[in-house]
């Protein structure tokens, strides 16, 4: 049974009226948003690491500047999202602490290693490509601050996706055989993990039904996964590469691409922390905080000195 407040809330949501921070909301709605937005923010911040791994080894100055700009965008997205999360009453430091204690999730995709320069192309093209498909509908999320944050984020992800695709296209058109093989290898490794980004299939997605009723999510995980696949396969063919999926084929009847079974065991293993780089990523985050402590200490000491000077 819904309380009168809950009924009024649901009517607003059904009428596409945005929920704002000071409006009444069910506790479950607040909790769900804090969970999703914090996971999303953590993903942006942790997502800087696999690409940061190649900054010092970018092949040209232009590529280095592009990659640096992309990684800085991701930091910005993280800060944007933490701010949106704070409007729900959550504490940023506390949520980040939970990440560092390994108590909360971040996107499975960032637990995979980046082995070659072609991975920078594959991440931009596939990972940001998947992120866009997932985030465009979030611009219409019922919670105002999250929806508005997604507008700028999606614009920047589009640039990221193009820069990634252009890296791969350049390697395929102008590269040596070895470089072309590198592209195919990167696609082979990132293909399935990109499809896993959309989350478990609808039948195994405990949060989807309620999140869709609250219009936090606008589509099920499987629908968005299919949308991503349908737009990505023609781009794959244009590159002159293949997918590591023998079952991938156009289905005339459905008007969609059919694809093979996702290895859900791998996905759930990653969520449980059994992943190539999951622990390493958290470790890197923690040491970034620890190693930056002297900078924060110095900034505080300087601010105190200035304050003292102003008083004298
Ligand atoms: N990895 O019931 P559902 C980026 C968890 S893009 C890890 O379906 P929900 C940009 C899920 O949290 C990546 N965990 O859950 C970038 C839940 O666990 P919980 C970030 C996953 O929330 C690009 C459980 O499984 N994007 O960062 C994953 O309704 C390049 C059951 O799942 C977002 O976060 C996964 N892939 O739907 C940055 C988008 N999938 O909390 C750098 C916003 C599911 O119950 C470089 N989030 N889980 O313990 C969403 O749209 C949703 O949260 C979904 C999951 C669709 C991810």
Automatic annotation (TrEMBL):
- Choose one Gene Ontology CC annotation of this protein and give it: cytosol
What InterPro entries does the annotation carry? Answer: Aromatic_CoA_ox/epox, Ferritin-like, Ferritin-like_SF, PaaA, PaaA_PaaC
In short, the EC number is: 1.14.13.149
Does this UniProt record's set of keywords contain Lyase?
A: no
UniProt keyword Protease present: no
Q: Which UniProt keywords apply?
A: Oxidoreductase
Ranges of biased composition (kind: Basic and acidic residues): 1-8
Tell me what this protein is called: 1,2-phenylacetyl-CoA epoxidase subunit A
Organism (species)? Alloalcanivorax xenomutans
